[in-house]
From TrEMBL:
<keyword id="KW-0489">Methyltransferase</keyword>
<comment type="similarity">
    <text>Belongs to the class I-like SAM-binding methyltransferase superfamily. TRM5/TYW2 family.</text>
</comment>
<protein>
    <recommendedName>
        <fullName>SAM-dependent methyltransferase TRM5/TYW2-type domain-containing protein</fullName>
    </recommendedName>
</protein>
<dbReference type="GO" id="GO:0005759">
    <property type="term" value="C:mitochondrial matrix"/>
</dbReference>
<feature type="domain" description="SAM-dependent methyltransferase TRM5/TYW2-type">
    <location>
        <begin position="159"/>
        <end position="345"/>
    </location>
</feature>
<feature type="region of interest" description="Disordered">
    <location>
        <begin position="1"/>
        <end position="23"/>
    </location>
</feature>
<dbReference type="InterPro" id="IPR056744">
    <property type="entry name" value="TRM5/TYW2-like_N"/>
</dbReference>
<dbReference type="GO" id="GO:0016765">
    <property type="term" value="F:transferase activity, transferring alkyl or aryl (other than methyl) groups"/>
</dbReference>
<dbReference type="Pfam" id="PF25133">
    <property type="entry name" value="TYW2_N_2"/>
</dbReference>
<dbReference type="InterPro" id="IPR056743">
    <property type="entry name" value="TRM5-TYW2-like_MTfase"/>
</dbReference>
<dbReference type="InterPro" id="IPR036424">
    <property type="entry name" value="UPP_synth-like_sf"/>
</dbReference>
<dbReference type="GO" id="GO:0070901">
    <property type="term" value="P:mitochondrial tRNA methylation"/>
</dbReference>
<dbReference type="GO" id="GO:0052906">
    <property type="term" value="F:tRNA (guanine(37)-N1)-methyltransferase activity"/>
</dbReference>
<dbReference type="GO" id="GO:0002939">
    <property type="term" value="P:tRNA N1-guanine methylation"/>
</dbReference>
<dbReference type="InterPro" id="IPR029063">
    <property type="entry name" value="SAM-dependent_MTases_sf"/>
</dbReference>
<keyword id="KW-0963">Cytoplasm</keyword>
<keyword id="KW-0949">S-adenosyl-L-methionine</keyword>
Amino acid sequence: MENRMTMTNSLKRKHQHDEPQEKGTMLRLHAPLARAATTLDRSIFAKTLNLAAATVQDNRNIARLRKQLTKGRELLEWERLNACKPDPVEEGKKCLLLKEGVKADAPSTWGPLLQAAVEAQEVSVIPYELQLDYDYWSYLDVISSILPEDLHGEIPVGFNTAGHIAHLNLRDRYLPYKSIIAQVILDKNPKLRTVINKTDNVGTESEFRTFTYEVLAGPNDMDVEVKENDCTFQFDYSKVYWNSKLETEHSRLIRLFQPGEVVADVMAGIGPFAIPSGRKGLSEGIMPEPDLLILFGPHVELDGYPPWPIRLTEIFCLPDNQEVGYQVFLRALRNFANAQFRKGK
């Protein structure tokens, strides 16, 4: 499913990068500062923390002890961090990371549940050196550590996707950091390979609602494959208007169509309505106007459908159709009104 992706970590927090901030029972650790960096240096985000851990003497007790220490808020709880780690000393054993402030050599810092487990000889408390690197930090952690604080109010956290492409609409004030923003998006979203930024409004330069763009990261590969409503669409994203936010509306309308009904899709584009509707059985308008054939054939043939059900009224951005104007469009509507129809798949 292709949709609008949003990275939703809250920015409404004070940046205290030396100590974590409490968030309910969850502590949030902040990435090292790299203010106003112009290139992405991943090594900056390495961080070492000196903690304590409880080595579990019998691995069969791990789940029970972890549950008890979590309930008692004695376990380390950081976002995206598994508190159960291989023991650094005893091979084959596991240890549970304890919350900050607990010292292995200071029993007075131990919570009551930990003390009870030590007395029962179920665990022993050891020092633990936790190594974090760039891979640990989220997109928002990294970007908020790089951008100046006066740009934190509207950090770009959402983007449209089409296949392997992330499509940004960056505000002017974020353009100096566009390359870093794009690279971090790729790093944190493995299914994406290319990040582009729109450089003008859709429709300003093209009557077919395509747009000019710049590649911010990854290859300039605009041939995408998108899955929607059990159909696969393959197209050049730079030449076809595709809005992933419309998927819900596409699905809603397609559910309303019934087999045998006549549906005039006069602005069909690549076919988010027409192709799924064809699975239900279409009524085809037989029209001689060659300028109104749409570029659906390859996709429909992949699904085992003959080409005739998809000759719908559409002005498509083909080389031969670039001068098609309203006169041709109106003629197409008149042809459609007088068309004969064949029904079925």
